[in-house]
Amino acid sequence: MQDFGEAFSLAFGLVLHPSADLLEIVLLSLRVSLTATALACLFGLTLGAVLAIARFPGRAAVLIVLNALMGLPPVVVGLLVYLGLSRAGPLGFLGLLYTPAAMIVAQTILITPIVAALSRQVLEDLHDEYRDQFRSLCLTRLQVIQALLWDARIALTTVALAGFGRAVAEVGAVMIVGGNIDHLTRVMTTAIALETSKGELALALALGIVLMAIALGVNALVQTLRLSSEGQHAHA
Questions:
Q1: Distance (Å, rounded) from C-alpha 145 to C-alpha 29?
Q2: Which ranges in 70-184 belong to alpha helices (H)?
Q3: Residue of 1, 34, 102, 153 with fewest CB within 10 Å of its CB?
Q4: Cβ(172)–Cβ(78) below 8 Å
């Protein structure tokens, strides 16, 4: 166990002069989480847009389920993905377990409901505002969705950033399906857990500092985009 003062000093040194191992872990974390966020936006924004404008029997129940899925326990997601990708599972032949691809799948499943639910609310409010105008122009549903997505692009960017923030901080699911294998599936959160359990606090703190910096950066960007959007509406 390292002295706390020494550990912090070494951690800041690692952040200022990152080692190859630290850079590898950070870059893999970003690659996995950004890919998962892109996939979650592809599925989630589509689902959110459809639910925003569609009216059908059972819609209320679908929304309840979708909102409930926003609180999916990460370890449960990890377990389900593990069962699906394990050798005895239906997708075991793909050989994806304990690879970055499995981690991307788990994170995508975890944040897609978040993106879908948040984007649905944004797009539904906008659709209610422009409903009569859309009817007067006789637009198809696809054209309405395209118009809504474009007009709400700044708000939807904040939704995507929220999803990324959730993904990059995830530990339970990626630990189960990735295995925390050195130089293959070790990301910031799993490395922090491992190094802390070993008593190697310097690397754990360095990764924690980087993770906090990313989280703060994402939040700052969200707030900037939100203020920019509010400013545009105020001048409109």
A1: 32
A2: 74-85, 100-137, 141-151, 153-168, 172-178
A3: 1
A4: yes
**Residue 210: both structure tokens together:** 């980087």
DSSP state of 56: -
Q: Which of 210, 130, 168 is nearest to 40 (CA)?
A: 168
pTM above 0.85, yes or no: yes
2 phi and psi angles, rounded to 5 deg: -85, 150
Name the DSSP letter for residue 94. G
C-alpha distance from residue 27 to each of 100, 213, 222 (Å):
12, 14, 22
Kindly list the structural domains of the chain, giving each domain's residue range(s) and its CATH number in brackets, ordered by start: 4-235 (1.10.3720.10)
The amino acid sitting at 197 is S
Distance CA 233, CA 208 (A): 37
Instruction: Give 189-196 contacts, CB < 8 A, sequence gap 24+.
Output: 189/29, 191/25
- Sign of the dihedral through C-alpha 204, 205, 207, 211: positive
In terms of Cβ atoms closer than 10 Å to its own Cβ (0-12, 13-18, 19+), residue 115 is buried
Cα 149-229-236 angle, rounded to 5 deg: 95
44-68 pLDDT, tens digit each: 999 999 999 988 898 999 999 999 9
Query: What would the pLDDT profile of 154-198 be if each residue is shown by its tens digit?
Result: 889 999 999 999 999 999 999 999 999 998 999 999 999 998 888
Mean pLDDT (the chain, rounded): 89
Cβ 175 vs Cβ 78: under 8 Å:
yes
